[in-house]
Amino acid sequence: MQSVHRALDLLEILAAAGGRLPMAELAARAQLPTPTVHRLLRTMVERGYLRQLPDRSYALGFRLVPLGARANAMVGANASGVLHDLVAELGETANLAVLSGDQAEYVAQAPSRYAMRMFTEVGRRVDLHSTGVGKALLAQLDDDDEALGIIRSRGLPRYTAHTVGTETALRAELRRIRERGFALDEQEQEIGVRCVAIALDPASAPGVAVSVSGPTARMTDELVERAVGLLRAAASRLAGDLRD
């Protein structure tokens, strides 16, 4: 199991770095011995998940392409219509995110129709305690200790003056989210941005959340209230699609 985790870590490090790195840099970023990294890289090259380039650096392999295409067909295509419906109703950017280790990763997005809009690159990973989707995913866990255990490896870095910065404050925030059924990002990841998010039914789609985000000037309390009902309907549709 440790080798599987390490191999996946190397793939994620390569992807985050743009898809290409020398072995020494990979070993340094993964904090693994060079012989261990070399052995894992050799295996993934043999299977086609990585390529070794003429300069001896490593790049993502072509075997990943059909896997990514299949995953996109199962998630992205189904989500696209739901997210675009949210944009049509609310005007603001709609996102789908999944729990990825100790962070949230955006896997689909429909952009706002406004010229000034929020944009999050698909594949971007963000901390859980400072984002709407992240807090919605944490609140989905019944046990606060389990939720806090996930975020402790990264800590609670403060991105703005509004970011939740202590475990006590995060526990209180997770209780509020469970009580009202949705999470808010009140300029906690980025100043001027407000987000509302809802996690999908864990029985059908564990570790998945849908959100709407936009500039604070447009993300009024009235719009957030409208968004909550639409997000609940969207979450139900998405859970059905992913379950099927």
UniProtKB/TrEMBL annotation:
SMART domains: HTH_ICLR
Domain IclR-ED: 63-244
Gene Ontology terms: biological process: glycerol metabolic process; negative regulation of DNA-templated transcription
Signal peptide: none
Keywords, in A-Z order: DNA-binding, Glycerol metabolism, Transcription, Transcription regulation
Highest taxon listed in the record's lineage: Bacteria
Start and end residues of each HTH iclR-type domain: 1-62
MF annotations from Gene Ontology: DNA binding; DNA-binding transcription factor activity
Record's function text: May be an activator protein for the gylABX operon.
PANTHER family with a match to the protein in the record: HELIX-TURN-HELIX TRANSCRIPTIONAL REGULATOR, ICLR FAMILY, HTH-TYPE TRANSCRIPTIONAL REPRESSOR ALLR
Official protein name in the record: Glycerol operon regulatory protein
